[in-house]
Amino acid sequence: MRTTTRFLLSSLLVLPLGVTAVHAQSALSSLGQPSTSAVGDVSSSANYHVYVFTRGGTRYIQVNDASGAVRGAFAVTAYKAVGLPIGSDASRLATPDEPLPAPAVTTGETVYTDNSVQVFVAPQPNGTMQLMLAPGDCKNPAECSSHGP
Questions:
Q1: Rounded CA gap, 64 and 72, in Å?
Q2: Alpha carbon distance 38, 32 (integer Å)
Q3: 3-class secondary-structure state, position 135
Q4: Are 63 and 121 in contact (CB under 8 A)?
Q5: Is the whole model's pTM more than 0.90, yes or no?
Q6: CA-CA distance, 119 to 15, in Å (whole number)?
Q7: Radius of gyration of the chain (CA)
Q8: Which segments in the chain show pLDDT lower than 70?
Protein backbone atom coordinates (compact mmCIF):
# COMPACT_ATOMS: atom_id res chain seq x y z
CA MET A 1 0.00 0.00 0.00
CA ARG A 2 2.77 2.45 0.89
CA THR A 3 4.62 1.64 -2.33
CA THR A 4 1.50 2.39 -4.37
CA THR A 5 0.95 5.68 -2.53
CA ARG A 6 4.58 6.71 -3.02
CA PHE A 7 4.38 5.84 -6.70
CA LEU A 8 1.22 7.89 -7.17
CA LEU A 9 2.64 10.88 -5.30
CA SER A 10 5.89 10.67 -7.26
CA SER A 11 3.97 10.54 -10.52
CA LEU A 12 1.90 13.57 -9.59
CA LEU A 13 5.06 15.55 -8.80
CA VAL A 14 7.09 14.49 -11.83
CA LEU A 15 4.37 14.62 -14.49
CA PRO A 16 3.97 18.43 -14.53
CA LEU A 17 7.75 18.87 -14.79
CA GLY A 18 7.86 16.57 -17.79
CA VAL A 19 4.98 18.37 -19.49
CA THR A 20 6.71 21.73 -18.94
CA ALA A 21 9.98 20.43 -20.39
CA VAL A 22 8.19 19.00 -23.43
CA HIS A 23 6.31 22.29 -23.99
CA ALA A 24 9.54 24.33 -23.72
CA GLN A 25 11.29 22.02 -26.18
CA SER A 26 8.39 22.10 -28.66
CA ALA A 27 8.21 25.90 -28.40
CA LEU A 28 11.95 26.28 -29.04
CA SER A 29 11.79 23.88 -31.98
CA SER A 30 9.40 26.40 -33.59
CA LEU A 31 12.20 28.97 -33.79
CA GLY A 32 12.76 29.84 -37.43
CA GLN A 33 9.37 28.56 -38.54
CA PRO A 34 6.84 30.84 -40.25
CA SER A 35 4.04 29.62 -38.01
CA THR A 36 4.97 29.53 -34.35
CA SER A 37 1.75 28.47 -32.70
CA ALA A 38 3.72 27.10 -29.74
CA VAL A 39 4.18 30.67 -28.43
CA GLY A 40 2.03 33.77 -28.68
CA ASP A 41 2.62 36.80 -30.87
CA VAL A 42 4.01 39.64 -28.70
CA SER A 43 4.44 42.23 -31.44
CA SER A 44 3.54 45.83 -30.71
CA SER A 45 2.74 46.29 -34.42
CA ALA A 46 -0.08 44.95 -36.55
CA ASN A 47 2.39 44.81 -39.47
CA TYR A 48 4.67 42.18 -37.89
CA HIS A 49 4.60 39.08 -35.72
CA VAL A 50 7.16 38.74 -32.93
CA TYR A 51 7.76 35.54 -30.98
CA VAL A 52 9.97 35.17 -27.91
CA PHE A 53 11.48 31.85 -26.87
CA THR A 54 13.58 31.28 -23.75
CA ARG A 55 16.00 28.49 -22.96
CA GLY A 56 18.94 28.28 -20.59
CA GLY A 57 19.02 32.00 -19.83
CA THR A 58 18.96 32.98 -23.51
CA ARG A 59 16.02 34.78 -25.09
CA TYR A 60 15.40 34.28 -28.78
CA ILE A 61 13.36 37.02 -30.46
CA GLN A 62 12.01 36.17 -33.92
CA VAL A 63 10.43 38.72 -36.27
CA ASN A 64 8.04 37.66 -39.03
CA ASP A 65 6.39 40.00 -41.51
CA ALA A 66 2.61 40.35 -41.78
CA SER A 67 2.37 37.39 -44.17
CA GLY A 68 4.25 35.17 -41.68
CA ALA A 69 7.59 35.02 -43.51
CA VAL A 70 10.53 34.88 -41.11
CA ARG A 71 12.62 38.05 -41.52
CA GLY A 72 15.18 37.48 -38.74
CA ALA A 73 15.90 36.50 -35.15
CA PHE A 74 18.15 37.57 -32.30
CA ALA A 75 19.67 35.74 -29.34
CA VAL A 76 19.92 37.85 -26.18
CA THR A 77 21.75 36.99 -22.95
CA ALA A 78 22.66 39.16 -20.00
CA TYR A 79 26.04 39.78 -21.65
CA LYS A 80 25.53 39.83 -25.40
CA ALA A 81 22.98 40.25 -28.20
CA VAL A 82 23.60 38.68 -31.60
CA GLY A 83 21.73 38.09 -34.83
CA LEU A 84 20.92 34.51 -35.78
CA PRO A 85 21.27 33.01 -39.27
CA ILE A 86 17.50 32.73 -39.63
CA GLY A 87 15.16 34.50 -42.05
CA SER A 88 15.32 36.38 -45.32
CA ASP A 89 17.00 39.41 -43.69
CA ALA A 90 19.52 37.46 -41.57
CA SER A 91 22.40 39.46 -43.06
CA ARG A 92 20.72 42.72 -42.04
CA LEU A 93 20.45 42.20 -38.26
CA ALA A 94 22.16 44.89 -36.21
CA THR A 95 22.89 44.90 -32.48
CA PRO A 96 25.28 46.92 -30.31
CA ASP A 97 27.46 43.77 -30.19
CA GLU A 98 27.24 43.20 -33.97
CA PRO A 99 26.76 46.68 -35.43
CA LEU A 100 26.00 47.43 -39.07
CA PRO A 101 26.21 50.74 -40.88
CA ALA A 102 23.00 52.74 -40.62
CA PRO A 103 20.60 51.62 -43.37
CA ALA A 104 19.65 53.82 -46.35
CA VAL A 105 16.24 54.35 -44.76
CA THR A 106 16.05 54.60 -40.98
CA THR A 107 12.32 55.20 -40.68
CA GLY A 108 10.25 52.25 -39.57
CA GLU A 109 8.65 51.06 -36.40
CA THR A 110 9.37 49.43 -33.09
CA VAL A 111 7.89 45.93 -33.21
CA TYR A 112 8.93 44.66 -29.77
CA THR A 113 9.92 46.17 -26.45
CA ASP A 114 10.59 44.66 -23.04
CA ASN A 115 12.48 45.81 -19.94
CA SER A 116 15.91 45.47 -21.53
CA VAL A 117 15.67 45.57 -25.34
CA GLN A 118 13.66 46.86 -28.25
CA VAL A 119 13.48 45.64 -31.84
CA PHE A 120 13.04 48.19 -34.63
CA VAL A 121 12.34 47.30 -38.28
CA ALA A 122 13.26 49.66 -41.12
CA PRO A 123 11.90 48.58 -44.55
CA GLN A 124 14.36 49.39 -47.34
CA PRO A 125 13.63 50.58 -50.91
CA ASN A 126 14.83 47.25 -52.37
CA GLY A 127 12.23 45.23 -50.41
CA THR A 128 14.59 44.05 -47.68
CA MET A 129 14.35 45.06 -44.04
CA GLN A 130 17.00 46.04 -41.55
CA LEU A 131 16.19 44.68 -38.09
CA MET A 132 17.84 46.53 -35.24
CA LEU A 133 18.00 45.36 -31.65
CA ALA A 134 18.88 48.13 -29.22
CA PRO A 135 18.85 48.68 -25.46
CA GLY A 136 15.39 49.39 -24.10
CA ASP A 137 16.29 52.96 -23.18
CA CYS A 138 17.71 53.84 -26.62
CA LYS A 139 15.98 56.78 -28.32
CA ASN A 140 17.37 56.08 -31.82
CA PRO A 141 17.71 52.34 -32.62
CA ALA A 142 19.53 53.01 -35.92
CA GLU A 143 22.20 54.94 -34.03
CA CYS A 144 22.39 52.52 -31.08
CA SER A 145 22.89 49.50 -33.34
CA SER A 146 25.26 51.10 -35.86
CA HIS A 147 28.31 51.33 -33.62
CA GLY A 148 29.90 48.82 -31.29
CA PRO A 149 30.15 48.77 -27.48
A1: 7
A2: 12
A3: strand
A4: yes
A5: no
A6: 37
A7: 19
A8: 1-30, 35-38, 147-149
